[in-house]
DNA sequence: CGCACAGTTGACGCACATCAACCTGGGTGG
DNA sequence: CCACCCAGGTTGATGTGCGTCAACTGTGCG
């Protein structure tokens, strides 16, 4: 595991190979030219209601899908890791019913034309690969609903840490028990449906239990089995 | 709006025409022979971890997707209405990471062979139709996450009622302000991530505010605009 | 060196959970 | 046809996990 950011800018080469290989079935994309650009923390990759042009692939950093309620309440509905498609199904048709924002400074690949809808005849392999990703996204969404509805704050937090480790390990960005996580407690709170104050207290608990340490953006699972047990984590939903 | 059930058995013809027409793009399915069978309340249409054979279409009644945690906690991750595919993406490959259960007695259509994966070359229209449904399912899941994480109990309940009205109206099973809803408070609780006692109190509040009545399985929205406002309901996520 | 943002902590309040008792209506069987 | 039965609904009393408010502390960056 290496830091993506040395100093201010992500000038150290992001681990592209692993990420690109994560785009397995979407390999055709790699052939296509896609333009990389940097997005600052807090910026939107896709605004709510926008009709996205093409596809956005996250290459380095973390983005999220989120929705706002009129009075300022925010719910993050997905946290994306390198190799993920930010606006997976938004590109399929119509305007997005969610926004995509950057949780850290990140590097995003942009494919201007939409290769799914534009290609005629439809690229079958691409479509199949897309279906697999849609399916995985939905499985993750289901698991988040379980956390939001039926897990306690500390269980939800532990579960999120376990899920992210698995997903990051899939693209070579996590070891067996650690990874880089530079997301603020405010953002974690909006993902878990609680307040940042309570995220802080739950983190403290996990630390006191000797399950994790989280310092300077590096998460270490000191006792991963115990953490997974506390979280009621069953990774089968993440398998292809 | 007519009752599906007269007496004990759903012998009155379910509103098949509307439901079938809801299968728009999946019209090819209608050509195929699919076997109808009845499922009693509480029975599973698909068990957790099972590899589903073919597809299940809900024709009458309500089913749900749900997940159990080891200690008995349950979270319903989707409520399905006639015209919906119960195991939409489960059929695409592999074992289901959720179960599908009947919330009321229902009528389910079963297509034994999987027309998506088996057909070679892939049926493009069918696939496109399936993508649209996947996309809608995911939009609904996102909105549920917003409810679970950021709406109060009464707002979530109101929102669910609004969502179901829209979805049922799409298949001709709801008027502008009423529909049949024979789901128990226990099931509503597991969908909303709260307890049935609290569902009861939230319902009482909505009744006292003059927004709804719910008697003998008939939900009437006495003041739909006010209900939608309370729920922070924006139906755009349900549009195709 | 100091600003600004993120994290930390304590006191207190509320939404929702828990427990337990009681009600209600429609289905069933004698 | 009535009397029972029991799942589901209703209500009150009390407990608690998380929210709110507010002050303070670290830490990275200009």
Automatic annotation (TrEMBL), chains A, B:
Domain of life: Bacteria
Annotated CDD domains: CAP_ED (cd00038)
Pfam families: cNMP_binding, HTH_Crp_2
Record keywords: DNA-binding, Transcription, Transcription regulation
SMART domains for the chain: HTH_CRP
Alphabetized SUPFAM superfamilies for the sequence: cAMP-binding domain-like, Winged helix' DNA-binding domain
Domain spans labelled HTH crp-type: 151-225
InterPro entries per record: cNMP-bd_dom, cNMP-bd_dom_sf, HTH_CRP, RmlC-like_jellyroll, WH-like_DNA-bd_sf, WH_DNA-bd_sf
Name the UniProt record assigns to this protein: Nitrogen fixation regulation protein FixK
Species the sequence originates in: Methylobacterium thuringiense
């Amino acid at each position: 595991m290496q830091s993506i950011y040395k100093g201010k800018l992500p000038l150290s080469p992001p681990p592209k190979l692993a990420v690109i290989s994560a785009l397995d079935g979407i390999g055709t994309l790699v052939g296509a030219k896609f333009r990389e650009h940097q997005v600052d923390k807090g910026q939107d990759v896709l605004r709510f209601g926008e009709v996205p042009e093409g596809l956005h692939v996250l290459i380095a950093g973390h983005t999220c899908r989120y929705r706002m309620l009129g009075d300022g309440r925010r719910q993050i509905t997905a946290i994306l890791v390198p190799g993920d498609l930010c606006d997976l199904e938004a590109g399929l048709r119509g305007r997005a019913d969610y926004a995509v924002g950057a949780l850290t400074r990140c590097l995003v690949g942009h494919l201007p034309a939409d290769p799914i809808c534009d290609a005629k005849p439809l690229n079958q392999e691409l479509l199949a690969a897309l279906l697999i990703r849609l399916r995985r996204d939905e499985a993750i969404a289901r698991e988040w609903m379980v956390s939001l509805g039926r897990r306690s704050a500390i269980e939800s937090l532990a579960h999120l840490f376990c899920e992210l480790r698995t997903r990051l390990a899939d693209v070579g960005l996590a070891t067996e028990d650690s990874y880089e996580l530079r997301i603020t407690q405010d953002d974690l709170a909006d993902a878990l449906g609680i307040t940042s104050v309570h995220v802080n207290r739950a983190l403290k608990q996990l630390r006191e239990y000797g399950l994790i340490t989280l310092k300077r953006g590096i998460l270490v699972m000191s006792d991963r089995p115990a953490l997974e047990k506390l979280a009621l984590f069953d990774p089968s939903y993440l398998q292809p």
